[in-house]
Amino acid sequence: MKEERRVGVENSPYGRSLKTRRRRFTVHPYKHTTIGSMEDLNKATLPDVREFHDTFYRPDNATMVIAGIHPAQP
Q1: What is the pTM of this model?
Q2: How far are the Cα atoms of 19, 23, 30, 62 from residue 65, in angstroms, in the given order?
């Protein structure tokens, strides 16, 4: 999970926006990333990680998004 955070949040081109997010959203849940902070991840135990994985990384918990542009009608 730490590597997922490093790659997807901290080393992404928009990773610097985390500081901006914290300043903009002082009360709203958007203040925090969904993956959590490194401090949270460091506190997680192996049973915590296994429970999280078993709960959320499941085929029946997947979401499919289909996007596109409707062709113009004549």
Answers
A1: 0.48
A2: 29, 30, 21, 10
